[in-house]
Amino acid sequence: MHRLRTCAARLRPLTASQAAQTVGPQRPITITSTGGTRTFQPIRCYTAPVASEPFLNGTSSNYVEEMYFAWLENPKSVHKSWDVFFRNANAGAPPGAAYQSPLALSAVPQLSSLVAAQPNVEKLVEDHLAVQSLIRAYQVMGHHNAQLDPLGISCVNFDDAPVNTGFQDVGFYGLDESDLDKVFRLPTTTFIGGSESALPLKEIIRRLEMAYCQHIGVEFMFINDLEQCQWIRQKFETPGVMQFTLEEKRTLLARMVRSTRFEEFLQKKWSAEKRFGLEGCESLIPALKTIIDKSSENGVENVIMGMPHRGRLNVLANVIRKELEQIFCQFDSKLEAADEGSGDVKYHLGMYHRRINRVTDRNITLSLMANPSHLEAVDPVVQGKTKAEQFYCGDNDGNRVMSILLHGDAAFAGQGIVYETFHLSDLPSYTTHGTIHVVANNQIGFTTDPRMARSSPYPTDVARVVNAPIFHVNADDPEAVIYVCKVAAEWRATFHKDVVVDLVCYRRMGHNEMDEPMFTQPLMYKQIKKQKPVLQKYAEKLIAEGAVSRQEYEEEIAKYDKICEEAYNRSKDEKILHIKHWLDSPWPGFFTLDGQPKSMSCPSTGLTEENLNHIGVVASSVPVEDFTIHGGLSRILKSRAEMVRNRTVDWALGEYMAFGSLLKEGIHIRLSGQDVERGTFSHRHHVLHDQNVDKRTCIPMNHLSPDQAPYTVCNSSLSEYGVLGFELGFAMASPNALILWEAQFGDFHNTAQCIIDQFICPGQAKWVRQNGIVLLLPHGMEGMGPEHSSARPERFLQMCNDDPDVMPPLSEDFAVRQLYDCNWIVVNCSNPGNYFHVLRRQILLPYRKPLIVFTPKSLLRHPEARSSFDEMLPGTHFQRLIPEEGMAAERPEEVKRLIFCTGKVYYELTKERKTRGMDGTVAIARIEQLSPFPFDQVKAESDRFANADLVWCQEEHKNQGYYDYVKPRIRTTTQRAKPVWYAGRDPAAAPATGNKKAHLVELRRFLDTAFNLDAFKDQQ
Ligand SMILES: Cc1ncc(C[n+]2csc(CCOP(=O)(O)OP(=O)(O)O)c2C)c(N)n1
Ligand SMILES: [Mg+2]
An example of a Gene Ontology BP annotation on this entry (predicted)? Predict the structure, then answer.
């Protein structure tokens, strides 16, 4: 008993005062860190009369302590001899008896179980554990107590869970006031000691308060990776980390001046204009600049940014460095637009700028992507563009190209696309190797308080799902802001993972400059009115510190005001607004110097027989050795080989021919979407899986020729909005790539409606940038129910910009010119040959347009839906309309009815016509390109069958499908000489019936109508 007490007392930490009495003054330790030079007083010492152990002497006492604490934490972490020694000592072995030589360990019986552990050892262990818990509590929850809100009215709701940190709460951990002066060894999971390994509890708490409860709140303990947690702890806990040089402080002040005075200048000149100013979050500008400087220092050369309205003009001016006059002239309502299209409001336009980073003296390209009002919609687009830039410059780890996304607090929490985008962040074919997210958290969304806008404490909680650290920071402390931004940039450079900076700020004005915020947030805005602007606060701090004089500060302001004033004067000379100057993704060399296509023609999209054969052989083989494929797949490949021998293609092979040939021509192809590698309908099989070796795959398409472009085919996450946005962004980077997104079924595209409506359809009109993305949308009424049937062609067609009532002038380059004028191309091919051509045309055209393809399901295996090599040879083209070529064409004057249709229903119509023996009386023409509408060919076809009435037949319901689109256009081709009758399903709310029988009855009914030559007599 006595022995145990002695042993424990020997190892127990002393109070600081005891320590001082026992050992007297010690030499202070001086260390130099990045934060400057600091001096520490060593406080930790022990009075252990270790000499009573014969094998110990005074100089080894530290070592014993190390061993003892390590043993306390984990007995297995020390050598067995130490384990036995401590157990024996604890068990009451007299001096000299506790130690056993390692050699004797196995021979001598151990004393460990002789005496039970005694209470003071337990207390010692408990106290240490308590201190560890306290440290951990700060690391986990310190941010709850951080002073993050500049207004001091924070509404972050942690469900009132108590946060037990601070002096007053040590009791929670089983410690009491008397422990505050005791010295405790610090665990390896904290860096608050700096070079010291033990501190008095009071100092431990003080340092933890400094690290976690000031103007920075670090949320990271949910991260599952110990190395990453340690890295963050070190960045925020190490004493003195937040030191700034004089130079850094002065640069920061200058940046704050620019940010603040820019908004003031706009307010002064255009007080009645909306600009979604940054007032209340001015430190956003130095924040972004720090991220860019630091990243440039780490080797980044290209930064792609996406951001909403708030502070966008300021970012353009002071981060991207758009010429100020170009920004100011946007406020001039008399400015004429030089470009075609609708243009867009000034706070949506994009920008691309290459310049020297003044801090690092390195070249950097900055682009801000144009975006719609739809908050957060640009997030995946930025990611896709970033991925593409990385891909094309061989930056496999994201060391040279990176993205920054800015968010508003309400949108970040509320918009599901944020979550979808986060979930792309670590997928091999979608990762951009870490995005830095910056939230301008002004604690309000338009007029809505956070407590009504989200169910999570912070607006940033969504980032936790991908283990992204979140740095909350009080935006009224610019130095704290800069520090977290530096850490965020370093985090990205080190771990290549996402990170979030939550700038907690306020919004000085209303939602826009015209809005009255006092209607809805009276108390908040009373507080805001009292709030001293951050620039003023920071300037006063630096003046008080002597870092800058008042005169220097005032000169800095005057200097920037003068820059603004001069730019304003120059802006008055601008007469014309060039949206082209706001291009976020230029395609050097693709257009002529004045931005026009280099020609207005499209060469043949056909291929040589040899080429078709070669690609066909690769498509039906396994190009690597010792690779076992599934037996069913062997049969598929065999039948492909058989088709190649027979000079025909089915749908999958037609696609293969198009992809393969473009790859051989050096065009990169990327096909992305849910389950695209195999194909939803198990027809594609672009990735072969070895049946015997886990994860061994082969992509035959990448074995076409040594100098081919790479083929990327990737199954995506189960997201449409995110993935389509991503692919759209990918397609922006280069015109020399074919980027395709396939919906699992066409219906599902509507969860990506925002990308379609706001980017794909009007992108060129709003932002003068072209995009050649291809959407593959499986479509067709096959009795599968209301879903899985319709890709909603009516919606795409309704958004086409061709005029239904005007017959465009016919010319030699009619088809190519018409395509040039359209906002997108909508096709529904009825055979694989035509699908092949339209894919190839997409690249061979001298410009880029989005292509919407309604793709088949049952036609994938339909024996008639095949094309001969003859239809794909040199000289052949995509057929916008496939005219009647059968019996009816032989005596066109005898034809009573001309049915126009599109897609799969053609096969149902021809079958029915044959059954009824009406091949000579009814002609059937397929409109393969719905938009732009082939006015010329429809006219030729209706002229050919001059005695026929005209019917539009579709399998979709009357209020859906194509009818509303084609009817006025067909009538225009005949100068409204003839009606266009309808044969198809009746109007309906749902796209298709869920009842198979009803489906067949409907089919029968409309086929009867289509072939009943008297069906429309009553309506005439
Ligand atoms: C998807 C979408 N829904 C609604 C709106 C309308 N709207 C514009 S700004 C805004 C509030 C945004 O709040 P927040 O994200 O916090 O940004 P802040 O304006 O506060 O900077 C809303 C609801 C929108 N632009 N986009
Ligand atoms: Mg907000």
Answer: tricarboxylic acid cycle
Is pLDDT at 3 greater than 80 in this prediction?
no
Distance (Å) from CA 222 to ligand 2 centroid:
26
Task: Answer for the pair 838, 851: CB distance below 8 angstroms, yes or no.
Answer: yes
Sign, CA dihedral 325-326-327-328, equals positive
> Do residues 408 and 308 touch, judged by C-beta distance below 8 A?
yes
> Which three-class secondary structure state does DSSP give residue 610?
helix
Which tokens belong to 299?
A: 């080797």
- Assign 710 a pLDDT band (cuts: 50, 70, 90): very high
Q: Tell which one of 276, 437, 446, 524 to mutate to probe ligand 1, the residue whose CB is within 8 A of the most ligand atoms.
A: 446
| Among protein residues, the one whose CA lies closest to atom 26 of ligand 1 | 374
Phi and psi dihedrals of 897, rounded to 5?
Answer: -140, 135
The band of 275, judged by pLDDT with boundaries at 50, 70 and 90, is confident
The letter for the amino acid at 801 is N
- CB of residue 513 inside a 6 A radius of ligand 1: no
Taking the centre of ligand 2 as the mean of its atom positions, its distance from the CA of residue 223, in whole angstroms, is 27
Ligand 1: distance of its center to the CA of 366 in Å?
25
Q: How far is CA 885 from CA 182, 527, 882, 922, 923, in A?
A: 98, 79, 8, 12, 9
Closest by CA position to 920, among listed 891, 945, 940: 891
Classify the phi-psi angles of 159: left when phi > 0, otherwise alpha if psi is within -120 to 50, otherwise beta.
Answer: left
Classify residue 725 by its DSSP letter.
Answer: H
Side-chain-side CA neighbours of residue 151 (13 Å): 24
Tell how far CA 343 is from the center of its chain.
25
With contact defined as beta carbons under 8 Å apart, do 880 and 925 qualify?
no
Going by the DSSP 8-state scheme, the letter that residue 581 receives in this structure is G
- Is 404 near ligand 1, meaning CB less than 6 Å away? no
- How much of the chain is helix, strand and coil, in % rounded to 5? 45, 15, 40
Amino acid symbol at 232:
I
Intra-chain end-to-end CA distance of the chain, in Å: 114
Q: From 294, 163, 142, 304, select the one nearest 233 (Cα to Cα).
A: 142
Cα-flanking dihedrals φ and ψ of residue 914, to 5°? -65, -45
Which pLDDT score is estimated for 576? 73
Nearest protein Cα to ligand 1, atom 20: 445
Burial label for 392, CB within 10 Å (0-12, 13-18, 19+), is middle
**pTM assigned to the model:** 0.88
User: Can you tell me the distance from the alpha carbon of 415 to that of 158, in angstroms, rounded to the nearest whole number?
Assistant: 21
Spatial distance between the Cα atoms of 819 and 824, rounded to a whole number of angstroms: 8
Q: What percent of the chain has pLDDT over 70?
A: 87
Question: For 504, what's the count of Cα atoms within 13 Å in the CB-facing half-sphere?
Answer: 27
Is 481 in contact with 513 (CB distance < 8 Å)?
no
The token pair that represents 210 in the structure block:
């400094």
Q: Is 408 in the pocket of ligand 1 (CB under 6 A)?
A: yes
The values of phi and psi at residue 712, to 5°, are: -110, 120
* Cα 933 → chain centroid: 36
3-state secondary structure of 182: strand
- In the sheet that 980-985 helps form, which strands lie side by side, from edge to edge? 881-882, 922-927, 897-901, 949-957, 980-985
pLDDT of residue 34: 36
| Alpha carbon nearest to ligand 1 atom 7, residue | 446
> Which of 931, 666, 693 lies closest to 808, judged by CA?
931
Is residue 252 within 8 A of residue 284, CB to CB? The reply is no
How does residue 817 score in pLDDT terms, banded at 50, 70 and 90?
Answer: very high
Cβ of 417 less than 6 Å from ligand 1? no
Nearby residues of 956 by Cβ (< 8 Å), 6 or more positions away = 781, 790, 793, 794, 962, 963, 984, 985, 991
Strand partners, 981: 951
Q: Is 375 in the pocket of ligand 1 (CB under 6 A)?
A: yes
DSSP 8-state class, residue 117: P
Atom number of ligand 1 nearest to Cα 409: 16
